[in-house]
Each structure stands twice: as structure tokens, then as C-alpha cells.
Amino acid sequence: MTRSPSISAPVTFARFADESFLRVYATVHNKPSELAAKTTILRCHLLPVFGERPLSGIKAEEIERYKAKKLADGFARKTINNHLAVLSRLFKLALEWEVLLRAPRFKLLATLEPEFDFLDFEDAAALLEAAEPAWHGIILFGLRTGLRLGELRALRFLDVSLPGRKLVVRRAAWNGTIGSPKGGRPREVPLSEEVIAMLHELGRPASTSALVFGHPSGRMYNRNEMKWPLWRACKAAGIRKIGWHVLRHTFASQLVMRGVPLKAVQELLGHRDIRTTMRYAHLSPQSRRDAVERLSQPPPSAAGTML
User: According to DSSP H, which parts of 100-222 are helical?
Assistant: First the structure.
């Protein structure tokens, strides 16, 4: 008696998400922070909806219903787009690995340009004036270099060249884990005289692998430890409570307000896409002034426009 060939069960969304997308693809290609974000999005949002469905059976209409439900539940459009980005990458991987022959097509939600907070010149000066001596240096460094908090926490003396008047951002900390900076590549940031003078006051330790802004014991500060000194400085300065990322926004905003070209700001911040840096473009008074002034210039002569 012959047996009919067995038919394998279709791969479910949950199985592919766990065994292929997270354990293999995301573990290999994403930083720990990115892997954690994808894991949370899948566990808390996508798996409860699509988890038991066959991967090949999920249709575009279901994804549109997912968007509508999340909007009705009060989720921000940017947050929902983060979910959709994970969903899109998962389906693309299934196509690349030939688990699917076709995948549903869907669009991200339209969003407004996200707002960002920054300090004006007076508030930034007040913050520095009010900072406790032990924390003045790192707050100054954040305002004058634009490093992210994880990059500040992981910065070592070997990354800083005082003779070269520059630093190279090679590492970033996340939840106690050290990895590459956001964007996955090092970047070079020049140092101002003010910052160089502050670093000279710090002095160089015996080991260049020591952290520039580490705990007195030599260990790395955690994120929670670092928010309180900044908040105390804000309170003493009489300004609103801010987070460390506002120092990065302040660095970029003040550069643009002083007329620094956006391309240079992009390189200093380490943005891969100039569109990210364009958020600061409206702060450039000179660019708007130059545009309007061109209207007052005489029109080009007919002779000058002829070939």
C-alpha cells in the first residue's frame, strides 16, 4: 500500500518572524538597539494580529485594516509607520529567501515633518553657566560636537586627537552594549578651542582606552544616571527640562543659524540622507534673505541669455 506524499504546512507569520527574521536576519544585520526595537514591535503589535496566519495568506486589505485599527487606538502615524517598516522588511526577506512568490503591497501613512526642540543661544549659555562642575564638560561637549548620548558615553581618549583638533566617532553605547554609531560608519568631528581647552583641563589618563566622560570608578554611566545632572542644570538655569538629544539639535540648529551650509552640518551629524538634515533648513535666515534679494536684482539682459 502506497502512502500519499505528505503536504507540509504553510509557514506562519510567527514562525518566519522568529526563526528567520529575528534569529537570523536581524541578529546579523542590525545593531542591538535595532534588534530590540524590531522584537518589541513584533511581540507587542504585529504577532497578536498576524502571528497565526500563513505568511502567504496575508493580504493588503488586512494591513490596511491594521493601520485603521492602530489609528483608532490613538497611535501616532510615525509609530504605525515604524510597525509597517518592520512588516515590509519581513516580507521582502521572505521574497529574497524564496519563502514567498509574492508579497502584499502597502504604503506608509502620510506624516508631518517631526518637530524638534533646541536651545537658543541665551538658554544654551545659561545651561552651561548653571551646570555642576563635574558635568560642565560633557554638557559643553554635547553642545559643541553634536554627539548622541550613546556616543558621548562610549567616547574614549584614543578617539580624540588634541594635536589634530578633532575626534572620530567610532562607538556608541546602548543598554551597556558597545556597537558602531548610528549609520554604521565612523565620522570625524573638528573640535573648537573651547572644547580643546576643556579637554586639556581633564588631562589624559595612563590608558588611552579610558572613557573621556566615564564614572569616577572608570565604568560607563548609564542613561538614567545622566539625565539627573542635565535636569538639575536646567532647573538652575531657569529653562525647561530637556533631554541629551536636545543638545545635538542645538548644535545643528546653531550651526545653521550662523550660516553653516547644510551639507557640512549633515557630515558633522553623520546623517546618511540630506533630507534628515533639511529639518534645520528653515533656521537659516541668510538663505531666505538671499532668495528674496534676488528679486531686486536686474533681470538678465537679452544678449546675456542668447546662445
Answer: 121-130, 133-145, 149-154, 193-202
Residue of 111, 53, 49 whose CA lies nearest to 80 = 111
Domain 13-96 bears CATH identifier 1.10.3470:
no
Q: Does residue 88 surpass a pLDDT of 60?
A: yes
Pairing of strands 166-169, 172-174: unpaired
Q: Of 220, 178, 142, 140, nearest to 170 (Cα)?
A: 178
Q: Is 107 a catalytic residue?
A: no
Cα 129 to Cα 209: distance, rounded to the nearest angstrom: 30
Whether 248 sits among the annotated catalytic residues: the reply is yes
Catalytic residue of the set 83, 136, 144, 148: 148
102 in catalytic set: no
Domain ranges of the chain: 13-96, 121-289
Q: What is the DSSP letter of 211?
A: B
Q: What is the pTM of this model?
A: 0.75
- More confident: 31 or 59: 59
Q: For the domain bounded by 121-289, which CATH number is listed? A: 1.10.443.10
Catalytic (active site) residue 271: yes
